[in-house]
Design brief:
The structure is a single chain. The protein is α+β, with helices and mostly antiparallel strands. The chain has a domain of about 100 residues: Ku70, Chain: A, Domain 2 (Beta Barrel). The chain is about 25% helix and about 25% strand. It contains 5 helices and 9 strands, in the order ββββαββαβββααα. The strands form 2 sheets. The protein has a 7-stranded mixed beta barrel with strand order 1-2-6-9-8-7-5. A two-stranded antiparallel sheet has the order 3-4. The longest helix has 24 residues. The two termini are about 45 Å apart.
Length: about 270
């Protein structure tokens, strides 16, 4: 089992609930190495002293804050803990809010909060109370010397800690040029809206996350295997065809999309009935 990224307590009023944090996400990325193109030798990065040019071993490397050019305050692990000792071991729930009040723009990454005690009563109590009230807890946590804003929410049998972004980390929509005029300005009529909504309804389905996977990863892995066995070196990728939006007949596209979707649905129903 993977190691927890954090161990400590959820502070809920006067109740302290021991928990371990584990990432919800499982990494499934292809890992690549950097090679020297001339002889395919591995490229190695070294940590070197800027003054002497000599390599510095990990156990001699420290963190420091530069308060003015060339002047530093060196910090070790104890210094980070000394700044706010309780923050390293405690998740203090500050308040409870409605999940619907929080924009999806704020959501970053989730962690499982696994109870770290044989007595799980307090854990279950908080989980069920959150379900009953349909609220989520707002709390802060320090992970690897950085403080994060988080949500604590129930998910089936688990409590989830969801790291969310601070308000100042969210870009305003005003920074970008989004279309903000009425439908007439874009020559969109009621019939086009009707066909577009019909298409959405026709394509609507129950969410089944297990049917989706990283198809690009599969295709890339297939190409790697092919290249490994055939020693093929190059294959020109197909360039996407550029389209001029001004020349697109959206009504025709929408109608054809709706027809194609209807055909696929009919075909699926026929197969099920056989």
């Amino acid at each position: 089992m993977t190691k927890p990224v954090w161990k400590g307590y959820i502070s809920f009023g006067l109740v302290a609930i021991p928990v371990n944090l584990y990432p919800v996400e499982k990494k499934n990325e292809l890992r690549f190495h950097l090679l020297d193109a001339r002889d395919q030798s591995r490229v190695r990065y070294e940590r070197v002293n800027a003054e002497t040019g000599k390599e510095v071993p990990w156990d001699e490397i420290v963190k420091a804050y530069e308060f003015q050019k060339g002047s530093y305050v060196v910090l070790d692990d104890e210094d980070f803990k000394h700044a706010a000792p309780e923050a390293f071991k405690s998740i203090d729930i500050e308040e409870f809010v409605d999940l619907s009040d929080i924009s999806s723009l704020y959501f970053d990454r989730p962690y499982y909060m696994v109870p770290d005690s044989s007595n799980k009563k307090a854990y279950v109590l908080l989980r069920e109370a959150l379900k009953k009230t349909e609220k989520v807890g707002i709390a802060k946590i320090v992970i690897r010397n950085r403080e994060y804003l988080t949500l604590i929410l129930p998910h089936e049998e688990a409590l989830i800690l969801y790291v969310i972004r601070y308000h100042q980390e969210i870009r305003s929509e005003n920074e970008f040029d989004f279309p903000n005029e009425g439908l007439k300005a874009y020559h969109i009529n009621d019939r086009e809206i009707k066909i577009a909504t019909d298409l959405i309804h026709e394509m609507s389905a129950k969410w089944k996350p297990e049917k989706y996977h990283d198809e690009y990863r599969d295709a890339l892995m297939k190409w790697i295997e092919e290249k490994k066995s055939t020693k093929t070196t190059k294959r020109k990728a197909e360039e996407p065809t550029e389209k001029n939006d001004d020349l697109i007949d959206f009504m025709t596209l929408l109608k054809n999309s709706l027809k194609n979707t209807s055909r696929r649905s009919t075909s699926k129903d026929e197969k099920k009935s056989r």
